[in-house]
Amino acid sequence: MDAQQSPHTKVFIQRDFSDGIAVKFQTRYPQELEGRVDRTTYERTINNINEMFAEAEALSTRTCCESCFACLTAYIALMCIDTYYEKTLKKVRKYLEEQNQTIYMSRGVMLIDPAERGLRILEIDISSIDTPQR
Amino acid sequence: MAKTVRRWEVFPGRNKFYCNGRIMMARQAGVFYLTCALIIIVSGLFFAFDCRYLAEHVTPAIPAIGGALFIFVMATLFRTSFSDPGVIPRASAEEAAEMERQNEVANPNSPGTYRPPARTKEVVIKGQLVKLKYCFTCKIFRPPRASHCSLCDNCVERFDHHCPWVGNCVGKRNYRYFYLFILSLSLLCIYIFACVLTNLILRSQDDNFVTAMKDSPARYPFTL
């Protein structure tokens, strides 16, 4: 929550509900990233994030066993271990941090973890001061 | 030296936080304490009086099963009451401004002063048209099945209802615990009732029914 020193533009990527209410973000390339990040890189990032969320919400044997085991221990086990969903959310956060560090920050763009916004939107901060390096 | 401010300290909704932000409850939690007291007192009386007789004369598994059920009930109750029901964080000022801007673009003939209220956004979900309502307090378009709780002043995902007995909203993230609480509490009630009946029947076979009642905790209201 730092005070913004430099002017920022914010782009909000909405959820893509075309396949149902599962967590999935629109892969449409925003105009504001023109000249900073190329289309393929951006789409690859978003697709990876969507894949991770799909994997988190998929009904698998692992999730089933985890839920049954947690229920049998009266959910006290959940105080010690993270569920698969929570682990995947952490994975998404780490992936976004890594993508920001390697690709986006050097071009003055920052992707904000959707978990910070209640999985409603994926916020993109574009600094208006930094000129694109490439 | 800047002190980090935790998110729960500046939370805009009407929730109360305890244990350094680990516990999240509604503002009015009085009925929750009543729920706890009722469950603990009734179970306590059951374990103190009926279990002693039944453990000797029938089987020691009776207090064991009763104990397991009681622990499950309390654990699910605490999980329901203390966890986040699925509160949607409010929109940041920039996001709200962006929404205003987009609405003004859609309405070019009414420029300036006051924008028209009550906007809905239409979204196609698997080929079906769904209207998302705009929440004026949280400044977001609510996802499908989300609703705003007026008591807690939050939008909650898959909002079921605000339960005063549990002292919290029931929504997507604590629905499972709420349902299991209700289920296990019903089982506990039926179990205690059956055991108490068994107790009275067995005792009245040894003596008569009146002596059986006198030995059980039921005598306390009558002696007062």
UniProtKB/TrEMBL annotation, chain A:
Source taxon at top rank: Eukaryota
Taxonomic lineage: Eukaryota, Metazoa, Spiralia, Lophotrochozoa, Mollusca
Domain Golgin subfamily A member 7/ERF4: from-to ranges: 11-123
The protein's name: Ras modification protein ERF4
Pfam families: Erf4
Keywords tagged on the record: Endoplasmic reticulum, Membrane
Membrane topology category: Peripheral membrane protein
Family statement: Belongs to the ERF4 family.
The keyword Endoplasmic reticulum is annotated on this UniProt entry: yes
Location within or outside the cell: Endoplasmic reticulum membrane
Subunit structure, as described in the record: Interacts with ERF2.
GO cellular component: endoplasmic reticulum membrane; palmitoyltransferase complex
GO BP field: protein targeting to membrane
TrEMBL record, chain B:
Domain Palmitoyltransferase DHHC: 131-209
Principal location class: membrane
Gene Ontology CC entries for this record: endoplasmic reticulum; Golgi apparatus
Catalytic activity: L-cysteinyl-[protein] + hexadecanoyl-CoA = S-hexadecanoyl-L-cysteinyl-[protein] + CoA
One GO term (biological process): protein targeting to membrane
MF terms (GO), sorted A to Z: protein-cysteine S-palmitoyltransferase activity
InterPro entries from the UniProt entry: Palmitoyltrfase_DHHC, PFA4/ZDH16/20/ERF2-like
Subcellular location: Endomembrane system
EC number of the protein: 2.3.1.225
Membrane topology recorded in Swiss-Prot or TrEMBL: Multi-pass membrane protein
TM segment ranges: 31-49, 61-82, 177-202
Source superkingdom: Eukaryota
Key words of the record: Acyltransferase, Lipoprotein, Membrane, Palmitate, Transferase, Transmembrane, Transmembrane helix
The family this protein is said to belong to: Belongs to the DHHC palmitoyltransferase family.
PANTHER family membership: PALMITOYLTRANSFERASE APP, ZINC FINGER DHHC DOMAIN CONTAINING PROTEIN
Domain-related comment: The DHHC domain is required for palmitoyltransferase activity.
Protein name: Palmitoyltransferase
Species annotation: Elysia crispata (lettuce slug)
